[in-house]
Design brief:
- The structure is a single chain.
- The chain has 188 residues and is an all-alpha fold.
- The chain contains 9 helices and no strands.
- It has one domain (2-184).
- 74% of the residues lie in helices and 0% in strands.
- Helix 2 (23-37) crosses helix 3 (45-58), helix 3 packs antiparallel against helix 4 (66-72) and helix 8 (136-172) crosses helix 9.
């Protein structure tokens, strides 16, 4: 259990708290990562964050913290992926009033078989085909039920937590929050 807690701290919490980007950029990075982490895009999520970052930066001329966004997609990981994705599927079935429901056992079996596919690229293609084509709209709609609120909630929670953490650091340094931000935040 301690190993899991340390892994979460190292991969998810530390990139957020130790980032020097402005709070809004860190918060948006978390929100984008959470959104994509809550979609059935296994194997491509980190690449998708980079694509969204590129579009946001070069087309809209805005910024979000890319390393934080990439770290956040790990909310769906080898331990959480199967239960999360099956929850997405059931939610989609419910919303679309689907009659033929895939059992958890068959769902798990199929994902296990796909994960044993030789080669990362082949695994990504097989996984995407199963999750997005074979299961289709049920999986996509079901994931959006969690991804959209996840985006919104994670943005505001992160903004509050990071600002509070930085204000504490400023107090410990004996300076105002504005002075601390001027010395420590990187502007783009």
């Amino acid at each position: 259990m301690n190993k899991l807690i340390n892994l979460c701290r190292e991969k998810i919490i530390n990139p957020v708290l130790h980032s020097t980007a402005p709070v809004s950029e860190v918060s948006l990075g978390v929100a984008v990562g959470v959104f994509l982490g809550l979609t059935p895009t296994v194997g491509a999520q980190m690449y998708l964050v980079a694509i969204v970052w590129s579009i946001y930066r070069y087309i809209f001329r805005r910024h979000f913290n890319l390393p934080v966004g990439v770290a956040m997609v790990w909310i769906s990981n080898p331990l959480t992926m199967v239960p999360l994705y099956y929850l997405f599927l059931l939610t989609g079935y419910l919303l679309l009033e689907t009659k033929n429901v895939l059992s958890y056992e068959l769902f798990t079996e199929t994902l296990t078989r796909i994960s044993e596919t030789a080669g990362t690229w082949e695994m990504v293609i097989a996984g995407a085909h199963f999750l997005l084509i074979d299961l289709g709209w049920s999986m996509i709609i079901g994931s959006l039920v969690y991804a959209v609120p996840g985006f919104i909630i994670s943005y505001f929670m992160t903004a509050k937590i990071v600002a509070s953490h930085r204000k504490s650091k400023a107090r410990l340094a004996g300076m105002s929050y504005e002075d601390w931000r001027t010395q420590n935040e990187t502007q783009h």
